[in-house]
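Work through this:
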Amino acid sequence: MSFFFPFGDDDDFGFSGFPGAKPKPKKEVENEKYYKILGVEKTASQADIKKAYRKLVMKKHPDKGGDVKEFQEIQLAYDTLSNEDKRKVYDEYGEEGIKEGMNGEEPTSIFDILNGRGRGGKVKRKTKSVLQMLEVSLEEIYAGKEKYFEISRYRICKQCKGNGSKDPNANTKCPDCGGRGVKTVIQKMGNTILQTQQGCGKCRGEGYVIKPEDQCPSCKGFKVKQESKMIKVELDKGAPDGKRYTFEGESDEQPDMEPGDVVIEIRIKKHKDFERTGADLTYTANISLLEALTGFQLLITHLDGRKVLINSKKGEIIKPGTIKTVKECGMPFFDHPTQFGNLYIKFNIIFPKSIKEEQKSALQDLFPKIVMEIKDIKSIKEKYFMSEYNEAETNKEATGGNKVEEEEEQNDGPRQVRCENQ
């Protein structure tokens, strides 16, 4: 029997399976360049790749005097190798495969298509991915610390290798559904007969039932066992609240299914001294009225533990509500840890509780134009003294009434309306 190919030789289509066909020599692929750029082995883990990239950023970033073109190559190498799909393409097809946008699959042959394999074949389902929350401190985000998180998941039983039976040859076919996982149900509605399928209750739609005497002693026939694992989360410097880290294949395992992912979402705890907005920090400083008028030195312990001394400018007066900026003293930029946001300082001015009479005249000499003079003060009839603020006395409703009045009405009845003046 002979085959005729109207569009060229059979070898043009990769039909190397025919008798006498010569297999095409596989083109050599250069797939070590990106690993050499980052200075890691081809077997390097994602953690090793990220660590190597961070070191190169600190040394080779243009802001640190590095060459722009060289840093672009470093960035391209990291973007490729830090992505598992791109890395597979690079390992298989090299830089050419990345540029051509290959998806990491082998080209599908005519035999794969005819046999229902390749891109048109059956794809394994994945188990459900799991989202977990991880609380971190602002200090840990500032420094890019490593955190460990314990997860609990189901994994394929090692003893029976997911079979569920101590005897792999044991008959586990469900007697009710014949191993199909579904049962046919016939219902008669008037003159109409309905035939439907529903999941088998005995085997729970799985098609098999393991007899008690055949069950694996380790997993008791469940095919999976619960286990715990510590996952290392490498926090990025300056990572935002809600940043997610995905650990592929670390969720539950089930027979004939791909394991889902574990997704760790970080939640940054409120800090006692600093308030974060993006890459900026805000610090509220308490200074005395004297310091506000004559100058001050402010000592701040930063998030990495170092001491920062901040001085006011000579002759500068700090007014209530003033906000000052200390440039590039905030959080490291996310994905650009060599750059920093700003530190904003809000001032809370502490006034003296009281002053003596002799101090008043000195202050009036100091602020002669600030003291407000009221003319014809004797002609004003209504005069009041202020009391301390009490939240219980506030009238939050438009109709009036507060907690103090309500208590007095309950105890002594309605009180007389009055307006105290002196």
The chain is about 20% helix and 25% strand. The two ends are 122 Å apart (CA to CA).
